[in-house]
Amino acid sequence: MGFLSFGRLLISEFAAMLRKVKRVHMSQQYNLVVIGTGPAGSTVAKQCRAAGWQVAIVDSQPFGGTCALRGCTPKKVLTHAAELYDWLQRMQGLGLSAEAVQIDWQALMRFKASLIDPIPDKRMQEYAEAGIDAFQGEARFVDATTVAVGEVRLTGRHLLVATGSRPATLGIPGEAYLSTSDDFLVLERLPKRIVFVGGGYISFEFAHIARRAGAEVCILHNEEQPLTQFDAGLVDGLVKASCELGIDLIVKAQVKEIEKHKGDLKAYAEVDGKTRSFAADLIVHGASRVANIDKLDLERAGIAHGKGGIAVNEYLQSPSNPAVYAAGDVADTPGAQLTTVANLHAAAVTANLLSGRCKTVDYTEIPSIVFTTPPLASVGLLEAGAKDQGLEFQVKSGSGEDWNSVKSLAACYSAYKLLIEQGSGRILGAHLLGPHAQEIINVFAVAIRHGLTVSDLQETTFGYPTGASNISEMLRL
User: Fold this and answer.
1) pLDDT per residue as tens digits for the range 432-457
2) How crowded is the C-beta side of 108, counted as CA atoms within 13 Å?
3) pTM reported for the whole predicted model
4) CA-to-CA dists, residue 189 to 106, 107, 172, 184, angstroms
5) How many Å apart are CA 179 and CA 269, to the nearest integer?
6) Rounded to an integer, what is the distance from CA 445 to the centroid of its chain?
7) Which residue of 12, 203, 324, 466 sits 20 to 30 Å from the alpha carbon of 444, by its own alpha carbon?
8) How many CB atoms lie within 10 A of CB 297?
9) Are strands 393-399 and 415-421 parallel, antiparallel or unpaired?
């Protein structure tokens, strides 16, 4: 064998050895592999690692999840500015003079970015300090217990899918021209005309922000009643407040097509049997969200799933693949798509992984809040739900517009509805609209969780004058 041929042989054998080493290096074993770095995924990963488990975590997007980066936290920065703007407008001539006040969108977005942008690096540092192996990339199942992230193979004794949700596919022509809530939250400049498709949380909250920042806003909702998971009477109050703000709400509007021509956008919707067009500079998808599972190749792992997400049992475990758990928006459970639900899921999954199947989730006392101005809040049962359960109850409802805590804010909208069980006096449901609703609702959540009665709350002394002190007014016989 000549020197050149011998050299080629050595190189070939060396390359084969490198490929073998690379294959070994790129296949890694763990006690737990977590897909998703939101509140559910991060919490379970950290707690299992603290218990001595070998843990890997994967995300295709910047580490932190929807709530921290693209949802609750950045949204609240904008909401606070809109609330302050509204308060100043209400108080004009009542002791404050701020006629030139306006929302500086670019400055507000810079402030928001200063709070949000550092989160992925902080999360990465937390994983490193905890000894969690973190991988950036799209994860997909290759078998029942292994996921691929690029060329890396991560095999887990247990796996947790916590990939959250995404905007639902509407299946209409021109859908690609729709912007998402993620896009709205990073707008460098606020467009003059904005159309929101769908009348849910996202549309109402962003519409209130955009309108107070000076945009012309329209919401197209395909049903007669928006926000159907809330009390209809209180939703009517929020709709009235929204319309007075200048938001154009069109109900029973079925969006059929989005069109773009030379930079201009149009949404075509069927309203009362006729096609209407709505011109805009930005059209935002605020309709509904679905489990973010499309790219996971769940079938390869034998993971059953449907329209609601990954099928799970009461322990948040996949019945078709017991090695896999699901938590947060991606799990098909009765809980709404809320961070609080993801946190409950995280606690349950952690307990079930570390101690065996021992913990389930109670969804009965989880508050839901629409952070508009005025805010809308709900916890417990609606009237229809209480009737479906065969409960006997009385309804206490009324206006809070004469309460001092409301009048001192020059606020126009305040109302409540409480469901109280006959005989026991237990609080079954609480529904609030107006100032302080987003905080007062937490008191009712405690009451429902612990079976407190009207008497229990009436005997409680709340600080005065505060929003919570109005609870005694709501319960007054």
Assistant:
1) 999 999 999 999 999 999 999 999 99
2) 24
3) 0.91
4) 6, 10, 27, 10
5) 17
6) 19
7) 203
8) 16
9) antiparallel
